[in-house]
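TA notes. Do not distribute before section.
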Amino acid sequence: MRDGLLPAPFTNLTGIFFLLVLGISAVQLAALYSFFNGYLDWSAFFAAPVAALLAGVPLLSSILGIIAAYNVWHWELWAAIALMGAPTILWLALQLIALIINPKSQR
């Protein structure tokens, strides 16, 4: 399924975990749009495609999602990190575990 429609970090996800990551990604997309449209005062014509493009970059979308949730939606910082950073932190942890378990498969 490596050649599917999903970005590389999400190709091994199945079932409820996939739906959870998809839901969090939708919240990140909404946060990015709110940041560009509401905080930076961009028009929707520019804010929507830029937010959609940046939402596809896992680490960058998490960082910008945290900033947007904190500054635009006025969330507590711990809540923004917990929700927006969860997919990236979990993905990095799973990659680290896979590298430790089978280091030769990562080459």
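Switch to the second chain here.
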Amino acid sequence: MLSLESKHSASALYSRWDERTSPARFAGNDDVLDMIYFAKRKGNKVFLVRKGSKSLDLFATVFRGQILPHGEGSVLQGSFSKRISAYLLLAVLLVLDGAFAAKAYSIGVLDWAGAVGCLLVAALLILAAIPLPGARKRYTAFMRDITNEE
């Protein structure tokens, strides 16, 4: 869970969020290979993902949070995760991996190497669901820039 305090009021932070995450701010936002921050805001709820402007990165780390009034300022708080579609795809792949292992075991062709292989595939699928620390640092630095500037 990330929580960033700001001296700005919640309404000022809404406008700063909208202005700083506008696609017009990113040079090359029309190029497929450039990485930009894509953001949405609906009321006080915010969504942020770093991706190519013309592509869909299913396994990109996303930030989901909200901007709330806090004392004389406001606070941006939320958490990092993957897209829901990524979790659904990983669940389907885990079920298929388990079904493959169960079928191979039932017909007697699953030896220790096959079992280890199935476990490694399952472990890699589970690891794909964890947001990367480097992505968290980049997102946090970008959001600190929004919350702390004068």
